[in-house]
Amino acid sequence: xxxxxxxxxxxxxxxxxxxxxxxxxxxxxxxxxxxxxxxxxxxxxxxxxxxxxxxxxxxxxxxxxxxxxxxxxxxxxxxxxxxxxxxxxxxxxxxxxxxxxxxxxxxxxxxxxxxxxxxxxxxxxxxxxxxxxxxxxxxxxxxxxxxxxxxxxxxxxxxxxxxxxxxxxxxxxxxxxxxxxxxxxxxxxxxxxxxxxxxxxxxxxxxxxxxxxxxxxxxxxxxxxxxxxxxxxxxxxxxxxxxxxxxxxxxxxxxxxxxxxxxxxxxxxxxxxxxxxxxxxxxxxxxxxxxxxxxxxxxxxxxxxxxxxxx
Length: 311
Ligand SMILES: Nc1ncnc2c1ncn2[C@@H]1O[C@H](COP(=O)(O)OP(=O)(O)OP(=O)(O)O)[C@@H](O)[C@H]1O
Ligand SMILES: [Mg+2]
Prior knowledge:
The chain has 2 domains: 8-197, Phosphorylase Kinase, domain 1 (2-Layer Sandwich); 206-307, Orthogonal Bundle (Transferase(Phosphotransferase), domain 1), CATH 1.10.510. It is globular. The chain has a 6-stranded antiparallel β-sheet with strand order 1-2-3-4-6-5. Strands 7-8 form a two-stranded antiparallel ribbon. A two-stranded antiparallel ribbon has the order 9-12. The protein contains 6 helices and 12 strands. A hairpin with a 2-residue loop joins strand 10 and strand 11 (254-257). It is α+β, with helices and mostly antiparallel strands. The model is unreliable at 1-26, 36-48 and 126-139 (pLDDT under 50). Adenosine-5'-triphosphate binds at residues 92-93, 95-98, 100, 117, 119, 184, 196-200, 205-206, 208, 247, 249, 258-259.
């Protein structure tokens, strides 16, 4: 898939928001914005907020409600100051549904700064909506008015879907982090953006497992960690749902699991057992291709399905 351009220059400052109900995915302000999108001309981007110099925004920490922030105790690197600024450092990776950006939250005039990963789920403006213009080219004015109305609703729907994916990922990160599974600490969620601990050093992201060439003891240690993480998840009734050597990274010898919006409840999902087995096989396949005994993968599968009560 073609790489998408860096959208750093369109990074917008955001206004302060008022409290929302705990179980709402979107704040009243966000819903207001979506409503405006449905009724407004798509080319009218509305008034600009006051904000810090271009390319930055005020820290969005205080815009998330308590349940939209990471579990306590907050790590000491979390910056909660109202005067903090979020700087865009660049795009780490563009994906199918989301782009992962590197941001720095810093308190101006001090040396307090923390680098974090910001995963932004693609919303309407960045997905199929632009392509909709191709489909509507050459149609009559009246029909095209209907189609514009439809496109606005579609845009709203896509924005909502992006928010649901973000909420699902934040929820999974919270649950798993609390359970002791090696996942990035979830800092906060706001709309379609999930901010989490950055796994890496000095702004360089940790390599994906698939990019590493571990020697035998390292391979053994990484497999042991994979087993322990999968055991913990199974004990809590979950499996990753898309586990592979591409959705895991290695930092300082630690295996960390990423990319969790599709986390599977192995009991509620009728295909729960299949997902569990597939996760074990996908990740295990990478290890056996590097010399690990295939029996280890079979053993883990038996152990986990027994642990889940689904032998
Ligand atoms: N917290 C993080 N710290 C460091 N790197 C990260 C972090 N989150 C994501 N990345 C990097 O960004 C990549 C994409 O992240 P992720 O898999 O969550 O997004 P995605 O949209 O599902 O991407 P894809 O479609 O490629 O799977 C990861 O493989 C990893 O290299
Ligand atoms: Mg991924």
